[in-house]
Design goal:
Layout: H1 2-34, H2 40-43, H3 48-57, E1 61-63, E2 69-71, H4 74-86, E3 90-92, E4 98-100, H5 116-151, H6 156-170, H7 173-187, H8 205-210, H9 212-238, H10 241-248, H11 253-278, H12 285-290, H13 296-305, H14 309-337
Antiparallel strand pairs: 1-2, 3-4
Helix pairs in contact: 1-14, 5-6, 5-9, 5-11, 5-14, 6-9, 7-9, 9-11, 11-14, 13-14
Length: about 350
């Protein structure tokens, strides 16, 4: 009962800290983005007059007596933005109809007058798919390699795989991406170099085939990480006293390993697996750019390059939220999978 109260108190404290951290980052990003200059030729999209009119409707600008548009003070824009989240502002369009302002602003470059949340929703599927495929590939292979290395500790198989694991961990994923693209797409010509054109379904054979290379590029680092941690934890557990007791009671080596050692070694590895599933929505900016995957990472980079400030802010805060939630869930999972770990408890 006491441990449950301590866990609940710890979770509430972390939630409060997460909210405060998110708000601080949000306020900083909002203020800094609003201080960026807006060039009508590049930042106002295809119709600067509509752009400035919408900025006035959203409370970001006002039209002076001289006919020029001027920015509203940043703090006043922040108050207006927060109020629009609860009760969106409205205006009368040219036809006399009431229109409501989008809570999150609009895209002026990527998709004219589209809400950032709509654009993000359209580009989430490819990011989710390549991350899910990467998880399905990396978790069993990584854990399996780690088990094999632990059972062959200090033998040539362990030494060889350890060198390869350190190599894959040390080298950035975009290096594998370029290498895979060069070999499989240009030298051997067995896989397409970039993502297939979207034809209405993400589960066609052409789409799956075009995602093999980005999935492999994203999986190598995860496989190496799982293999290293599994080997380290399983090696430590195999040398524990309770394993000797299990063997003396008549269990074979394989029975003792998989019934006791492997289960105990999964305690610190499980949060890593959980973190992989949480990061499904985050994507990889560089990998998506190399293979022309039109996902969240590519959207974030595109919004920066095209100065689409509303989209840039929304996607950036989406990344921040995923990171904060992922960190909280991983930390809490340690106490759930191992009751010996006391979250928030005093010594």
């Amino acid at each position: 009962m006491r441990n449950s109260k301590q866990m609940l108190s710890y979770i509430l404290q972390r939630l409060l800290l997460m909210v405060v951290t998110f708000l601080i980052i949000f306020f900083l990003c909002f203020i800094l983005i609003r201080l960026l200059p807006i060039d009508p030729a590049t930042g106002a999209g295809k119709d600067p007059e509509v752009f400035y009119m919408m900025q006035v409707n959203m409370g970001r600008m006002y039209k002076g007596e001289d006919g020029q548009y001027y920015a509203v003070p940043v703090l006043e824009q922040l108050v207006t933005f927060l109020s629009n989240l609860i009760n969106p502002a409205s205006y009368i369009d040219a036809s006399g109809n009431i229109q409501y302002v989008s809570r999150w602003g609009y895209s002026w470059q990527i998709s004219w007058l589209s809400s950032p949340i709509e654009i993000l929703g359209r580009q989430l599927p490819p990011t989710v798919l390549i991350n899910v495929y990467s998880i399905i590939l990396s978790i069993p292979i990584g854990i399996g390699l780690g088990i094999y290395m632990a059972l062959r500790k200090n033998k040539w198989q362990d030494s060889t795989l350890s060198v390869l694991v350190m190599l894959f961990i040390s080298v950035p994923s975009f290096v594998y991406a370029f290498l895979l693209q060069y070999l499989f797409a240009y030298v051997w010509n067995v896989l397409p170099p970039i993502r297939a054109n979207f034809d209405g379904s993400w589960f066609t054979w052409d789409m799956f085939k075009s995602m093999i290379l980005p999935v492999l590029a994203m999986s190598f680092g995860s496989i190496a990480g799982f293999a290293r941690y599994t080997r380290a934890e399983l090696t430590e557990v195999l040398t524990s006293d309770f394993m000797l007791l299990a063997r003396t009671k008549g269990l074979s080596r394989s029975q003792a390993t998989f019934r006791h050692a492997f289960r105990n070694s999964l305690v610190p590895i499980f949060p890593m697996i959980l973190g992989q599933f949480i990061s499904v929505l985050s994507g990889s900016i560089i990998i998506e750019q190399i293979f022309s995957v039109n996902g969240v990472g590519a959207l974030f980079l595109q919004s920066i390059q095209m100065r689409d400030y509303d989209v840039f802010q929304f996607v950036g805060m989406f990344y921040v939220l995923i990171g904060l939630v992922g960190t909280l869930v991983v930390d809490v999972s340690y106490g759930l999978v191992d009751p010996r770990i006391r979250m928030g408890g005093k010594k």
